[in-house]
Amino acid sequence: SRSELDEIYDFAVQLGQDAGQMLLDAAKLRMGDGAASKEQKEHIEKENAVDLVTETDEDVEAYIKSQITSRYPSHKFIGEESYSKGSSRDYLIDDEPTWCIDPLDGTVNYIHLFPMFCVSIGFIHKSKAIIGVINAPFLNQSFSACSGRGAWLNGTQKLPLIRNPIPPMPENAPKGCVFSCEWGKDRRDVPDGNMHRKIESFVNMAAEIGGRHGRGGMVHGVRSLGSATLDLAYVAMGAFDIWWEGGCWEWDVAAGIAILQEAGGLVTTANPPTNHTNAPIEDVRLGSRLYLAIRPAGPSSTETGRKSQ
Ligand code: IPD
């Protein structure tokens, strides 16, 4: 029911704040301890030398999991660290209420003390991400959305913040856009795993679209934040016009998808369109590895006047 959903939303926002504080405290400890600065990173390699986990990822996930299971014992829980230590990825996204958590998205950023890291809390029902909370404590930014309640920055600023200057993809060419894409973690040199090739085609697309206008270079910039969920939040904000990544898991995107969709943006499981006039736009399917997000063109109309911090 509506009131149950609102209660879950409030709980998720509070959980995001508490977990964000844990991330901030842990990051400050790392900064304060001069001896344990960048050289001494307490991380462990997972599937390869760029797939990393820290104690902080594990502590924050354990905290979030305990809070959720004591408050909502019947809900399912999918957390990055519960599934990435060699265990089979045997979870299912189905009709059941399911929490989908990345305790620390942007782990590499956290290790290097680049401030783009956050906790990402998604709530999925009937296979759709309907609540999202992203708390980035170093940035003082908390994004939140619940289906029918609008998408918000710090509970007060409605998303998107930047409205309408550019027609949305794919109807029109994105003159003056900022694109974002991520390198992911796959470094295998196989056709499907070669990130360099994927990024190259994405960047080429940016260049090509500029070129269509005869002057070239009309895309303002290409960025790579190192946090897929923050990419989605920044698309919802309107700071990024397009984001694409070819290697995400559900916990990287569940919260961001809820926020972007509630802000009126579009997310699809597609490759970037090389011809922007006929890009396939299908409904996003959680469980895909590949996502393309397009920012909202203007203020969303779904909000019913209730904010959440
Ligand atoms: C990663 C980040 C990164 C993205 C990877 C993710 P993590 O998550 O979001 O930007 O490229 O696909 O796995 O490991 O920092 O939680």
UniProtKB/TrEMBL annotation:
Q: In which pathway does it act?
A: Polyol metabolism; myo-inositol biosynthesis; myo-inositol from D-glucose 6-phosphate: step 2/2
Q: Which cofactor does it need?
A: Mg(2+)
One MF term in GO for this entry?
inositol monophosphate 1-phosphatase activity
Catalysed transformations (reactions) = a myo-inositol phosphate + H2O = myo-inositol + phosphate
Q: Which InterPro entries match?
A: IMPase (IPR033942), Inositol_monoP_metal-BS (IPR020583), Inositol_monophosphatase-like (IPR000760), Inositol_monophosphatase_CS (IPR020550)
UniProt binding sites for Mg(2+): 80, 102, 104-105, 252
* Signal peptide extent: none
EC code(s) of this entry:
3.1.3.25
Per UniProt, the keywords (alphabetical) are: Hydrolase, Magnesium, Metal-binding, Quinate metabolism
GO biological process terms on file: inositol biosynthetic process; phosphatidylinositol phosphate biosynthetic process; signal transduction
Q: Pfam families this protein is in?
A: Inositol_P (PF00459)
Similarity field: Belongs to the inositol monophosphatase superfamily.
Under what name is this protein listed?
Answer: Inositol-1-monophosphatase
